[in-house]
Amino acid sequence: MVVAFVALLCATPIVLSALPASSSGLKPAELVRRVLGSGARAHEGLIEVTGSLGLPDLPGLDEATGPLHGTSRMRSWYDGTRRWRLAELSTTGERDYLSNGDSFDIWDYEQNQYTRIAGHPAVRLPNATDLTPPALARRLLKLVRAQDKLTTLKPRRVAGRSADGLRVTAADPDTTVGAVDVWSDPSTGVPLEVRVVSRGTARPALTTRFLEFAPKRPAAKDVAPRPARGLPRGTVDAPDLLSRLVTFTNLRLPDRLTGREALPGTASVASIRGYAGGFGSLAVAPLPPRYGQQLVGAAQEAGAALTPLRPPRGRGGEYLMLTTPLLNAMLFHSDAGPTFLLVGAVRPEVLTAAAGELAS
Amino acid sequence: MIRTELVKMLRRPRTWVSLLLLCGLPGLVAAFLGVTKVAPPAGQGPAFLAAVLSNGTLYPAAALAMVLPLFLPVSVAVVGGDAVAGEAGSGMLRYLLLRPVGRTRLLVAKLAALTGFVLVAVVAVTVSSYAVGIAVFGAKPASAVTGASLVTSMSGTGLTTPQVLLRLACAMLYVGVSMLGVGAIALFLSTVTDSPLGAALGALAALVTSQILVSLDAAASVHPYLPTRYWLAWIDFFRAPVLWHDIGRGLALQAVYVAVFLAAAWANFATRDITA
Hints:
The structure holds 2 protein chains of 2 kinds. Chain A is built from 8 helices and 20 strands. Chain A is of the alpha+beta class. Chain B is mainly alpha-helical. Chain B has one domain. Helices cover about 65% and strands about 0% of the residues of chain B. Chain B has 9 helices and 2 strands; from the N terminus they run ααααααββααα. Chain B has a two-stranded antiparallel ribbon with strand order 1-2. The longest helix of chain B is centred in the middle third of the chain and has 35 residues, at about 105-135. The chains are: A alpha+beta, B mainly alpha. The interface of A and B includes residues 2, 5 and 109 of A. Chain B: Pfam families: ABC2_membrane_4.
């Protein structure tokens, strides 16, 4: 009797996870359109992000690289593109990002600081808000090109709901992205789970998924909770290091790099540029000399070795390469003086070629 | 029978020494913090410890965070491991069962005594650390907070005194329920061996294994079933709104552990040859 009781208890979660999932039967291209068109759909839920990228701790970049390794949790209350709240949870505190119309605030419990971001920074570092399944799926699906292969995946249950599956297999040989799997809610199109698989592997390097999901308008007090009166408050123009660097550097980067065109709309911050190449896009930022030295020092401590770069034309320099299964980053110190940070989901050879072009 | 076991538990010096140690650690930490005013850096140390410097009302939460990883489970494992094996080890179990007492009834009484110890322990830690917190850090609203609020929640909203006390009570009960799982494992092992130390160490070995696996990403598939997985979910009482996801799962998981190990303890104890 006891054995039967224990067996029943142990079998319950297995039975629940094996409940059948239904599909809406849409074609892959229709699923992509539905996901891209779900930006206005209100929802709330609990999210878990699991990454195995293992980037080293670099000064000033921990906010961007931290969630990419290990498991982290977030709560999301989303009431459209301009009104939402995302809470990054930890066992010792919470960091909230609050967008409410024209204002954008960050609350950090451990720092006991409520910070308002003035205006809209032209560029910023990626952070937890970019890793929710809807945000990541829409960002990645916007990069899909005609030559990438779209296929449907078997529907499965995510956060207790049936979800339509879609796979994008990257065709560009330059990118480290092998495939992007997106499972979305059939009724709203909101992505419930995203897996990014690096080239040549089967296990996802980055997974973000809803553990709880409700396709409903969140309560106003949850989206914009009233902060306690008297909290220490501050206002800053730049929310992170990248947006601060914009004001320190004025080096003009080329309009084209390794065959990739510079992204439009960054005229006010010509010193930091993104170069469009589908999943193989990359970003380049010239660094102030002292900060560049700090980053090089931290990367060397993490085990990266300085390698000389001698392009066929122009001056060369030396670089440090930080490689992960998905994202690669290069710190390139040119003989001409400036130090550049190059980042992208591209093969290290692409970054080396880009650095060579920057040096010449 | 239950009353007898409860009284026996309360009369044991070991119970009071355990309680003294459990309450002593937060008292010691409060003394250091009160003298030096040096809070742990952000993201380090037990939860809430940095916040208590400006208001001692939250100190019971910090105290629970201090004793939960080690002190509390060790004391519960010792009491649970001693429940049946202690009687067998001292040669009293056979005589105990000679009285008109069924084995099931004896096991239920031992479980009740164990539950009583867990409740007394968490209440003692909470109440003593509340008193220590108020005495050392004061109960004025946190320096940053004005108006009716006393402290800030993790989400930055204000919490009034009744809200803080209610959430502390919920956290205390949740920690108590979490300890019942440990107690049930120790009680089961106590029916397997005649050595109270062996039973307590067995329960602690299970907990240490669980803690190691919880911190291992490679073992993510078994995390939801590990007894210590949701121990820290009580912190979610201090978010706005309260995050019930892990709290609910933690309570359900402990209920399963208690049910499974009590059933196993009953099956083993009811059919065992009592020789000691």
